[in-house]
Write a structure and sequence with these properties.
- The protein is mainly alpha-helical and 170 residues long.
- The chain has eight helices and no strands.
- The longest helix is centred in the first third of the chain and has 28 residues.
Length: 170
Amino acid sequence: MFIKFLKENRFVSLLLTLLRLYLGWQWLNAGWGKISSGKFDASGFLYGAVKNMSGEHPAVQPWWGNFLKEVALPYVDLFNVIVPWGEFLVGLGLILGIFTTFSILMGLTMNFAYMFSGTTSTNPQMALLGMFILVAGLNAGKIGLDRWFIPFLKRLFLKKAEKEQFPQSA
């Protein structure tokens, strides 16, 4: 019943828009700060997370620490690009209300990656608020560009599917 309320109530879409704008600004601001400084380097963060995967009650679970050690650190130059731009684009998507569900899914992925790496900060709060937007689906982007863009994409792909299913005979 609550999920249906989040997905369908038009007044909830106003509240979701406020949440979306708040989270969008947080992501946009974080990403732009990293991009505009030109000094972002994730290697210190990654090494710190890997260091915290030992002990009786590690802050970073070994499975995640091994991912960081074996994948993220060897490709830190790639992560130095995708982290700031990912944060910036998630923020832009949420603020504009375009690809809202995908944007919040990517934001949640980053929130959980940061939490898996042993940080807290605002990540739990952002993850919790993001869950409401994710569950609400299209209702979260109704007051945004999704209102027009998602129906356009549906029409475009349905037309294409119909042409493939029922090709014109020559």
